[in-house]
Amino acid sequence: MIKKFALLTLSGRLPAFAVVFSFLALALIFPLASVVSGAALVSVTLHAGLRNGAVVVAMSALALTMACYAFFGNPVIGLYAAIAQLTPSLILAAIFRSTRSLDITLQAAAVIGALVFIVLDIALPTNAAFWQQVLGQILEPIFQAGTMSPADVESSIATLSEYMTGIMVLSIVLVHSSLIFLGYWLNCVAQDNQQYKEEFKNIRLGKVLALLALALTLAALALQSSTLAQLAGIMAILFCIPGMTFIHTLCASMTNSKLWLIISYLLVIFVPQVIVIIVLLGLFETFFGLRNKIN
Fold this sequence. Notes:
The protein has 295 residues and is mostly helical. The chain has two domains: 1-194, Arp2/3 complex 21 kDa subunit ARPC3 (Orthogonal Bundle), CATH 1.10.1760; 203-295, no CATH class. The chain contains 14 helices and no strands. Helix 5 (75-99) packs across helix 8 (150-190) and helix 7 crosses helix 8.
């Protein structure tokens, strides 16, 4: 079934547009559907090139804008959703197609994410105030329903607001980097190619990026800087990918390997704090080659 879906997506511009647009529209109601539209776009771009991928994005954006105008009376929703959800995947897919290197593509994602954050931080110095207003409307009723005092509620929201821009950029970098893997996997499925497994296992983000992430983390702690802390998070988050490749290698060396792998992914999904441990594993893997030490 997955192979049929992959072959349909790669069979031409119109089928690709139909798949990407359908799941993009569905994502307005069920946000997780955007994963499928993004992966399909990556697959198309890897297979047919940047020009075809850009055409699919343009067609999907136009169709979603018209649909949102027809059903909600607001075309901006559709245009924003299409650009925000498809453009990062298109850029990273074009980089991957050009370099044929997952390592370089992920490094580029981290650098682009950091640059976007710096531009936003400079161009929009009132970001924290904006997020404080948004989070206040969302979280204040939840906090007040608990045992927190109004002063504690206000303090918690103010602290979180300082980091929200970085959290948003970090999330975008991680999600769209993950979509590169899904899109590449769809391509390999369509071609009966198992190459993606080896490439995933051999990902190396490099010691330079790791040292930069560690240096930013130390600087943020020393200077108590929320800006540096957010930059450190953006540069470090993709080390969860070599961290997961280490976990794959570790589970493969154990009995009931599939069960342990499923448990690992369930922990990541339902206990998000585990991602910090996985990032640390990825950093250790980068410096010490932990995968090579597993028998």
